[in-house]
Write a structure and sequence with these properties.
The chain is α+β, with helices and mostly antiparallel strands. The chain contains 3 helices and 7 strands. This is DUF4878 domain-containing protein.
């Protein structure tokens, strides 16, 4: 029978505890990033649906000047908000401790968009990166895929 001294058992136990703590902390940090990113996307989309430009801007970043963002917000959201039915966050994936990606389904009366939103930590809070967001799919109200169309 293999005999292990008491001090070696203590060392093995301590090592095992450290490994468990490490993986627990990593899982917690990952969940924190994903939850923070999800909260930022929700705040951004709620601001848009409520026509709250200040909240919309404070929960997003863009390369466009603020005056242009205001004009686009007024023009586009005033026309489209009446068609807005709702949204559902399909997934949020951690990229690293300062970046995540959210896939969101946005439903309008005659159209469903699937958007991919990068979410970043700007040093103070999590925000949606509009300049790098992309429309990854569009469906008509009858479920027909409009975009992208592959032949």
């Amino acid at each position: 029978m293999l005999k292990i001294s008491h001090s070696k058992w203590e060392l093995i136990t301590l090592f095992t505890i450290c490994i468990c703590l490490f993986f627990s902390i990593q899982a917690y940090v990952s969940q924190r990033v994903e939850q923070s990113a999800r909260n930022a996307v929700e705040a951004f989309l709620n601001a848009a649906s409520e026509k709250d430009f200040n909240a919309y801007v404070s929960n997003s970043v863009d390369t466009l000047p603020l005056s242009v963002r205001r004009q686009l917000f007024d023009d586009e959201f005033d026309n489209e908000i009446d068609n807005f039915v709702g949204y559902q966050i399909e997934s949020v994936q951690k990229v690293d401790n300062k970046h995540a990606t959210a896939i969101v389904e946005i439903r309008e009366k005659d159209l469903t968009l699937t958007m991919k939103y990068p979410v970043i930590f700007d040093g103070e809070k999590w925000v949606v990166d509009l300049g790098n967001s992309e429309n990854i799919a569009q469906y008509s109200s009858d479920g027909k895929k409009i975009f992208p169309v592959f032949k």
